[in-house]
Amino acid sequence: MNIYLDGENVTVNTLAIPFGKDIGQMEKEIKEYTIKEMNNVDSNASSLKIGISEIVRKYGFTNINIEVNSQFGEDSLPMIVIVDGLSMVPTLQDGEEVIIEKTKNIKVGDIVVVKDPEYKLLIKRVGYISGNQVFLSSDNNDTINVYENGTFHQMIAVEKWTNSSNIVGVARVWSSMNITF
Q: How far is CA 20 from the centre of its chain?
């Protein structure tokens, strides 16, 4: 079984002799599951394959070989995130779609998406790495004055340390860049 995903779409190709099995329904279930897992910050290629194996077994298949590929390569999961805020201007704009590669393999200068207890998800640049600790910085460090719901707010860019285990992935594609992998 070959699975290809790009952050938005999933293609499932089943290479099997069905013998009375509803391959179309199975592929539909696999697509729905894959889309859900692609958008799950805690999933990875291994957990995706385990879930797909369970679906396939439910349809009576036992000898299963699952290949997962994306625009980032074999066993690399993409995920789309939407930028919320101005802290990464001018690199990223508020409301911009960014495709990340789910990976913990980061380096200084990468733009990463991070799980954060206070903000849920942050998109920031890696400023420093010290052991398991990663310093997240903003591209825009200006204080921004905003009127929201009739109230004046000063927005200051969030910069903080986090544990590397909180990294969801690295930004690879966004609209204001030339696409290269």
A: 37
